[in-house]
């Protein structure tokens, strides 16, 4: 089902013939070639999207296209657990003067409150040993996997990645500066499917994710321009995790050879073939890849290829300005992202009953939490925490 925004784009494009659409692409296309000479250069004064909302006035007087240059790109670095995505993405972003979007952090991105308190810790303090209402950490899940922990953590990671990607698009359109993401929301299903195939997600949780979460949210985001896949065998990835991972990862009951093989399979058989025709895909063996080579390869890519970039191909000024305005509307993005939560039919993921009512009462009485509950994951534009941790 198309969103209202996508339907409006469809209605606009439906009134144009093929020649007119082609002319829009050719005249307004800005991503011709990645240029080493353009690294660090900006075409316009950056718009302060962290503290100002791009509204109707901006649509009229603040041109998005004028802010975008040859290096205004979204790049997603993909690969298995232990493939070296973090180190590579950080280095690449630094060398081409892009913003680096790190991997999701449940505490920093989700639970941390503006007053310094942690909402997870507050709730767990109240519920005590009640496992149904207790919020589990990533470490808890790796030590003792369960269906309840898996869907809660995976759904949270999806929400964080969605907000990261939404902010990456907004940053690009407001400043002209590109963004390098360490795995994007578009590849999140690769991981979820691997969890399901290894009996880490229940049937109901997998259906909720596949039927309700992804289809109702992913269509609002424009795909990246480039995906860089770091190819490393599952055996080598597991060895790296066991030797160099975080303490809880080294002894994880989640990371197994079967899981990493499933991730590798889902990338190579499903995700990479599906996106190859929509954007540029660069595939490297981790033993041979280096940022200098990747930067050189970026300069050879053709971003005017009319067989790719369908999301970015509509270049009419009003269209991209309208999309930027939608991304800038925090409440609108929040409603889009949280809509699937009303469809939850996953027993291990539901909170209900008299105990839930008591928990809500306790939270309303707790000064650390009640006045700040709306300022944790999604905070209105203008707040000091609204964009603090996303990129």
What is the H/E string? HHHEHEHHHHEHHEHHHEHHHH
**Structural domain count:** 1
Radius of gyration: 22 Å
CATH architecture: 3-Layer(aba) Sandwich
CATH class designation: Alpha Beta
Helix content: 40-55%
What's the CATH topology name?
A: Rossmann fold
Average pLDDT over all residues: 85
3D shape = globular
* Sheet with the most strands, sense and barrel status: 5 strands, parallel
Strand content: 5-15%
CATH homologous superfamily heading: P-loop containing nucleotide triphosphate hydrolases
- What gap, in angstroms, lies between the N and C termini? 30 Å
- The number of helical segments is 17
Helix/strand-derived category reads: alpha/beta
Overview of this structure, please?
The chain is α/β, with parallel strands linked by helices. 48% of the residues lie in helices and 6% in strands. The protein contains 17 helices and five strands. It has helices at 4-14, 18-28, 56-61, 85-95, 106-111, 119-127, 138-143, 147-175, 188-197, 203-213, 234-244, 247-250, 257-275, 291-299, 317-328, 330-338, 354-365, and strands spanning 74-79, 99-101, 179-182, 226-231, 280-285. The longest helix has 29 residues, at 147-175.
Short description:
The chain is α/β, with parallel strands linked by helices. The protein has 17 helices and 5 strands.
């Amino acid at each position: 089902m198309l969103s209202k925004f996508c339907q409006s784009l469809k209605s606009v494009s439906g009134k144009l013939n093929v020649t007119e659409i082609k002319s829009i692409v050719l005249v307004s296309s800005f991503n011709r070639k990645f240029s080493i000479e353009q690294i660090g250069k900006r075409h316009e004064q950056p718009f302060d999207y962290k503290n100002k909302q791009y509204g109707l006035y901006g649509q009229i007087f603040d041109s998005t296209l004028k802010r975008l240059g040859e290096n205004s790109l979204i790049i997603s670095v993909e690969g298995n657990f232990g493939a070296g995505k973090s180190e590579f993405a950080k280095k690449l972003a630094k060398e081409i003067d892009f913003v680096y979007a790190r991997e999701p952090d449940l505490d920093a991105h989700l639970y941390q409150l503006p007053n310094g308190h942690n909402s997870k810790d507050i709730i767990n303090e109240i519920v005590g040993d009640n496992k149904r209402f207790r919020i589990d950490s990533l470490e808890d899940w790796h030590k003792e996997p369960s269906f309840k922990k898996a869907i809660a953590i995976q759904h949270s990671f999806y929400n964080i990645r969605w907000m990261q990607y939404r902010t990456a698009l907004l940053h690009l359109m407001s400043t002209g500066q590109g963004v390098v993401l360490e795995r994007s929301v578009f590849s999140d299903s690769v991981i979820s499917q691997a969890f399901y195939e290894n009996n880490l997600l229940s049937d109901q949780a997998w259906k909720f994710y596949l039927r309700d979460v992804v289809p109702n949210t992913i269509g609002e985001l424009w795909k990246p321009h480039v995906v860089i896949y770091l190819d490393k065998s599952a055996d080598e990835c597991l060895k790296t995790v066991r030797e160099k991972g975080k303490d809880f990862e080294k002894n994880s009951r989640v990371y197994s050879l079967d899981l990493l093989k499933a991730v590798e399979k889902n990338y190579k058989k499903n995700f990479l073939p599906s996106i190859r025709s929509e954007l540029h895909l660069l595939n490297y063996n981790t033993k041979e890849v280096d940022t200098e080579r990747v930067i050189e390869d970026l300069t050879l890519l053709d971003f005017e290829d009319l067989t790719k970039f369908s999301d970015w191909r509509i270049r009419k000024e009003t269209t991209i300005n309208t999309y930027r305005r939608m991304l800038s509307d925090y409440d609108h993005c929040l409603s889009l992202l949280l809509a699937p939560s009303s469809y939850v039919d996953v027993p291990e993921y539901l909170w209900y009953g008299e105990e839930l009512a008591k928990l809500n009462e306790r939270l309303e009485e707790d000064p650390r939490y009640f006045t700040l509950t709306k300022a944790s994951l999604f905070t209105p534009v203008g707040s000091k925490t609204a964009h603090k941790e996303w990129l």
